[in-house]
Amino acid sequence: MADIYPPDYLVHADLPTTEQFTVTSVNGKVGVGVRANLPFARGTRVATFTGQLSAQVLQHTLQVSPSAHLHDPWFVGLLTHSCAPNCMLDMQRLEVWALSDVQPGDLLTIDYAVTEDMLHRQFACGCGSSACRKWITGRREPPNEMGRAYLAGLEAKKVKRIVTRSPRKLAR
Ligand SMILES: [Zn+2]
Hints:
The chain is an alpha+beta fold and 172 residues long. It is built from two helices and twelve strands, in the order E-E-E-E-E-E-E-E-E-E-H-E-E-H. The protein has helices at 112-115, 145-171, and strands at residues 21-26, 31-36, 45-48, 52-54, 61-65, 68-71, 80-81, 87-90, 95-98, 109-110, 123-124, 135-136. Strand 1 and strand 2 (31-36) form a beta hairpin. It is globular. It starts with 20 loop residues before the first strand and ends with a helix. The mean pLDDT is 92. Bound molecules: zinc ion (ZN).
């Protein structure tokens, strides 16, 4: 068993260990994520986390207040986004809580728009949930140019499917 955070982060004994979680690569393309090694029941605390305060939004920061961000490239900053996540963050107490039952091997997922006003980088989402928003932004920013083009492309595909289907139906 080892601590996930390097020694200079260890401000209390309750931080996550390698017995509880595995930092792992995800599908080879998403980058890294964090998998649970133990089960966690819905409504229970999964972990506490820590980090270093930053005035800037970085790739692995989480927003604490409109002007303060917690930089944690070791644990919570590595959690994967899902539009139907199994976890949520309490940014006041610096805790991860289970929104649904988490089984060993499951990736811990959070909805990035819940904590972040603006993302370091907006991105296309393929989380597979029926509630998937397809393009992920912070909660206080509209989709950027790439996002608008991406969403318009998805919409055009949908329209094309409807249009190409109906004339054939009418012809018969
Ligand atoms: Zn999604």
